[in-house]
């Protein structure tokens, strides 16, 4: 499923709204790295691929900006292990 993902650079967030619920990935920038700190998806919209879409958007942005990605949150770590093409 495709989601409209917004990038709020000022607040270091990738967000999407599904069924009136907001899900997001929060990151920090450090030197030449993007640290993915949190992946938050409300329980009522879990299991729809929302978290995967948000994390992928973060990785795609980092790639476009030549940033290394360091997944800090457990979901982003697991996602990266399933997608070695993004390492």
Topology:
Elements: E1 6-8, E2 13-18, E3 21-30, E4 33-40, H1 50-64, E5 68-71, H2 74-82
Protein described:
The protein has one domain (6-86): Gcn5-related N-acetyltransferase (GNAT) (Aminopeptidase). It is of the alpha+beta class and 87 residues long. 28% of the residues lie in helices and 36% in strands.
The oligomeric state is single chain
Based on CA atoms alone, the radius of gyration comes out at 12 Å
Q: Give the SSE order as H and E letters.
A: EEEEHEH
Q: State the helical fraction.
A: 25-40%
Question: Largest sheet, described in full?
Answer: 5 strands, mixed
Overall average pLDDT: 97
Q: Overall 3D geometry? A: globular
| Beta-strand segment tally | 5
Distance between the termini: 23 Å
Quick summary of this structure?
The protein has 87 residues and is of the alpha+beta class.
Task: Summarize this structure as a short list of keywords or feature phrases.
87 residues; alpha+beta; Aminopeptidase; five-stranded mixed sheet
